[in-house]
Amino acid sequence: MKNYYLITTQYLENYGAHCDSGKFSDGKACWKYKGGGQYLISTDSPREANAVAFLTDYLHKGNDIHSKELVVGWEQIGQGYTEPHVDGDYKSIDIEEYFNNPVVKS
Q: Is 45 part of any domain?
């Protein structure tokens, strides 16, 4: 049986990295909020923190001096054998499937 967690993210863009270093150390950082996303994480684990930690690590791989995506909220939205209905756009990732075949389903 799967546990389902809807996790919300915030995207940030560093305008200082467009034409300069974008670093805090030289005063060139200029981060701005730029929307966000939703992820439906499914897992065999009943631990909500496992889903949050997984997505945090997953997103960290794409973060750099130009942009970052951060976890800002989460909730368990179901448990069962079929994916629950979620309104809006989201990416669906099953943790166990990810480690067997790391492809994100849209």
A: no
